[in-house]
């Protein structure tokens, strides 16, 4: 298993593509530093990441497309056992249970499991990322000693029983109850209604023998809100498993993808567990039924408990970036070899990637993927800071949650968009399972709605932006606007709060973009992107002000009338964070040519984001109609400049053909094209090629023998 | 089998949804005329369409999700045999072979087969729409008598061997050859290179015993271009089939969807067929090898031959509309029942469809789907006119091809977008195969690249727009601008050429939209949409003018630099056609309330198209910044107005739960919600509900017993 990128083995370097009409190729041959760029894109934990990627070189761990559901599930369980045996799943856990206490490295490695099979990633995510993490973060040291060994070696496959049929994203409203019985010192876990059945749980349909069940904790007639309980659900029965008394469930059956994970439902009929099965870090019940918690506020307690599980969102976001990179590596490799329709010279056909439309389809996605990649490093750093304990204040945790809530929607939607555009850009070949794009898309589809629905997450981010805006405005009222702005300008670190310049836009509305300043200057792009977020938030805050004095019904209606805007503001905020991460990474690139190409790619990201929202910039006077017209032509020029480097850029992603396992990314298309061109060249040279009737017509016309052939 | 829409059986009527915060519900209860609207949307051949839809009520014809590929293929073959037995596949064929010569009715009926299983539709499309149609349209009466009976009764399953691995959309460049041998009066069909292997052919992997093979016809040393040949490929061997000598092939295996169709490759090693196996309607070879054709120009001949196969594009477009309707029926039914997060009153949760973002996600797609539905009727009418012989001039055929090339990209992309948004709007439930959305999306995915890649088709439309623009400009030069404009204004029928007002925009640039005129007036919307197409085409034409005097290489580069714009112009043209079809249909609605709701839906379509391209309108001075800001708030108001009618509108689509076969569209969600609310009501009434800790805190605070709970 090697961890070195070998660009020579990966894809045809762009220099091998002969010049063809329609593309400026002046700089072909000036290769970028693929090795250094690859390391930058693989980030702080690049060695772990590459080792995890190379795990997928083992055929035992690879997805077999089209396997029947039952076989796929058993294969993935066996693969998960292999992972446990190889000790690659312990990394985030405490040393006391054999772990390495390396939360960041663990996620970096986990994210790359999607290369082997996204089902394996999610099966592992359920076991070690959700079930195990809940015990780790919500339980006490005794719980760790008692249950984590079985979690880690997979002798106790477990379900994470949070979601209910009736409540997806709204966890606080779940209806399963855990009622404390002082007489027996037990909790009674109960599912009172159909809507309270636990749903979509991995490991529930077949393999789970225990579950962490989230339920409303009721003791002494008071509901203390959602808490987590360790509940055994199955026992051995002959060679198989059967439900324990009071537990029942059903199988979700076939899904749109991820069919290696055995999702199912679970429900409970007055199932009793000992009092000590309450994972009691944030809330405990004494033998006599007295409730206690280190966090007084039930609301804050709830969000603190859920917050410990943020790693799901962080790692799904990282996986989505990895899969986007794979999709682009496949489509850009194929697009640099495939030819279609003859060009100006009539003897050879044009390479797909030389068509402007093909560049328009793929290169902005390449820019977004690199932006998302670099932004993910910052998210992962922040995650590691909190979970390693290095930066673990309440504020750090809240910022991390907001960043994850902003990142995951953008990256998971990006993955779907990239996979689909890649699949279409490869035509019919893209639809064949052997070329991986359709299978990956099927698997990734659910990433946009699980671990927090993307729209719900963006709304969370939007609410945070509004809260921060409110606080900033309050500060201005107290300290005076001028001093405030000066203070903010000095505070441009990466660890500032999500809404950075908050109220400044009220005072200073983007003079640079309206002036003659150049759209390709980083400061112009930053100003435009920042200004939009800030102005949108300020506008929504203003529109919502009457809600303070309104009835709850009116206030809810007013908020609802601005829900779409709020979600768009959150999206804009997430895009700004990606742009900033991209820009912050540029000075790290030493080779000037590589930095230049990467800066062009950053410009493409910035300008396509501005282009997408051009109407907003025009309506709000941030950009003149004259300048706006230049945005698209700038973008077109950037595409031409980036085209010669497209193959190098995806080579730097470090997914070699043996990782991609897509027939069309192996070079077969180039071989076929070469064979075809050699054949026709030979035929022409030997005079074996029949005369084309069109040419015959043209010659006859010249000598007056035929009618003019006007429709050709 | 009934063909009547029974709205009572379909989905919960909107009146049953109780009012909830955030939505204006003043007009709830004023139902639209679902029956009449249903008939309008089912169009001219509504009876055939409904009968075909009801075919899917037979479990034998229904798709079983997750069937292994081999079983699915055999099931679909058996289903196709059932269709043949029931005589529903003959409709388009001549009376001489048992047909009814009803091309429009045939397609209307064929389009609805996607309800049963899109694989069945495509299997049928290969057999009767491509293989059979090629014999019908490219062959002579003797060919019809000899081969069509076997095609129709499916005793001769056939492949349509046009596409090659090396050439997808560029059919003119295929490399398979059919060389005439005078000595034996045979054609020699040959695959000279790997890239010339026929690829992605339905019926090729398993079931096909013959194929219509497209190849370069070479006789007497001259290549006369692509022609079609009837070529037997397999013979019986024991209980199975084996390749005939010289024929070989391979199986494409698993695909992203449509796995009931046995796609594969075919190639030929000097396979000999009699001279009379040339489908010779547009080009023939005499025994002595002399070539003749009723069409002199090889280019026109090629496009005439391919043009006979336009029905594939027309019917795929219609199917895509049907599937979009199914997806919306599922998601809107579920969205009108599903509740998530408590509203202002704290005791009941808000129905998803009352959230603004949910409306934003689904209702514009509903408007686009109805627009596409009504536009499809016009396309189908035009198709019927040409193929019934009623309006069958060269111009009619060219217009039909341009219309189909504009329609198919828009509708097939709409279907994918709608299926995906519907799937996400249904959350995890949308990802379950039992709810159909993921399976339909997998099947429909390939519709955007087969039967003409969507981007290639839009480029074709763009080129036609440029050609028409050139002709119009030439007319102006001759006849004088003023007289021309007057003449065009009078020529506003539905059968005008694709680019209707062509050069008028040069003379008159949209005064209404800039003036105080209302954006909701139909004339304003029309002017804005038309003006954009025309101005874009004029601008591209202007930019391409230097190509006339440029070298071929420079001309190709110049064209390529405007490829993206040209494709966008074609898309805008397609959207305009849909808007016009929607508007033209409004007077046909008799019930005033229904017409009002449908007009609001048309406005939503028009305004969301304008909103999408707002930057263009602003940059080009068609709309002021002030007016542009009102577009989004107009859209928001339309959503609120349409919300109460959303369920009625999808009921009018006529897909009942037994057509949809999606668990979440059967009312189970409403049952679960009702059960849950009744349970909590009962508990509250009986005083069994535990006190919520939050409320306890609030009470303690009031009496000064606890710290303020600031974070709730």
From TrEMBL, chains A, B:
SUPFAM superfamilies the UniProt entry points to: Acyl-CoA dehydrogenase C-terminal domain-like, Acyl-CoA dehydrogenase NM domain-like
Protein name listed in UniProt: acyl-CoA oxidase
Q: Which organism is it from?
A: Georgenia subflava
Taxonomic lineage = Bacteria, Bacillati, Actinomycetota, Actinomycetes, Micrococcales
User: What are the GO MF terms of this UniProt record?
Assistant: acyl-CoA oxidase activity; FAD binding; fatty acid binding
Q: InterPro entries, per this entry?
A: ACOX_C_alpha1, Acyl-CoA_Oxase/DH_mid-dom, Acyl-CoA_Oxase/DH_mid-dom_sf, Acyl-CoA_oxidase, Acyl-CoA_oxidase_C, AcylCo_DH-like_C, AcylCoA_DH/ox_N, AcylCoA_DH/ox_N_sf
Region span, Disordered:
1-27, 684-712
- Every Acyl-CoA oxidase/dehydrogenase middle domain range: 159-270
Keywords of the record, alphabetical order, are: FAD, Fatty acid metabolism, Flavoprotein, Lipid metabolism, Oxidoreductase, Peroxisome
What region holds the Acyl-CoA dehydrogenase/oxidase N-terminal domain?
79-152
Kindly list the cofactors needed: FAD
